[in-house]
Amino acid sequence: xxxxxxxxxxxxxxxxxxxxxxxxxxxxxxxxxxxxxxxxxxxxxxxxxxxxxxxxxxxxxxxxxxxxxxxxxxxxxxxxxxxxxxxxxxxxxxxxxxxxxxxxxxxxxxxxxxxxxxxxxxxxxxxxxxxxxxxxxxxxxxxxxxxxxxxxxxxxxxxxxxxxxxxxxxxxxxxxxxxxxxxxxxxxxxxxxxxxxxxxxxxxxxxxxxxxxxxxxxxxxxxxxxxxxxxxxxxxxxxxxxxxxxxxxxxxxxxxxxxxxxxxxxxxxxxxxxxxxxxxxxxxxxxxxxxxxxxxxxxxxxxxxxxxxxxxxxxxxxxxxxxxxxxxxxxxxxxxxxxxxxxxxxxxxxxxxxxxxxxxxxxxxxxxxxxxxxxxxxxxxxxxxxxxxxxxxxxxxxxxxxxxxxxxxxxxx
Length: 413
Fold this sequence. Notes:
There is one protein chain. By secondary structure, the chain is α/β, with parallel strands linked by helices. It is about 25% helix and about 20% strand. It has a single domain, classed as Rossmann fold (3-Layer(aba) Sandwich). A hairpin with a 6-residue loop joins strand 3 and strand 4.
């Protein structure tokens, strides 16, 4: 989700200084590129010159998406043994058919389930991914199950398993649109586990912002809320300041699907890819086989590198949500906010970036978290990356230990 360097190219210079940008126009510190027409397959493809255009051309080279699961049926999921996916039909929008996809973890079917995992769940977690992402954290599912929870992850509309060829990747013009996705998932969970099952909602980055706003609008619906580096404040250095916010919102009103030109540099993705041959980095011998070092290897159809197009209408929806948080929410359930201890802004790779949040300003997140509600627990982890649950092994253990303490204190009855 490392798109937060608006209007800069990989060298760090502003897009307004980019000699390649004859196919764009700039507004303040923001450059934009008009929508391209769909190709023969219906997929939007960037054309032209400049780093932004080149990054979007990668989407056309991706392998085709898997055939979706039949609506209403559980099918084996790509995550492997113990994981199943179910397509959830939703009301159509202006682009056509819309679905979400619920991913369920069944530990009894997983040979690598954690020892001591209870046979019967007493609560459930519904987890939301962030921008340019999808549900893929097997470790989180196993940890939740070991704590007595039924884990469900939700690929929101137009992301991951829910993306269809006719859709603008990840696009919505209001975060409240996701109410339909969450309610459809909640209905399935209650059908499986029983109406009134204690439900914990979780979310990472933009998914954390979506989850927080849903919890605010639905008092009493949740047993708890877990936010993993939530994008509840536009705090990353120089991203969206007072000077650019009105411009973004003005363009969003008239041309919501115009693409924001962003840097193709994705240092966070390099962290997720692990250590490559030729990298001058020392890997601890006792961690050499850990996926933090070998690479998490997310599916590039669904977590593009660089990220897919960011559109003004979507960005304005994020800013609207962040303003709501800044004005103060009233989330009635206990909230756990997990972040790295440090952020870093960079345009070139350094091994130190494996141990900080390179996407968001964690100090701004922690400040904004105090306005979520009356019962908020903040936990910062030294050495954590943007998705704290994909950090180095010792950090992950600390994160899951904190999650376990919080669940035992506020979720389990």
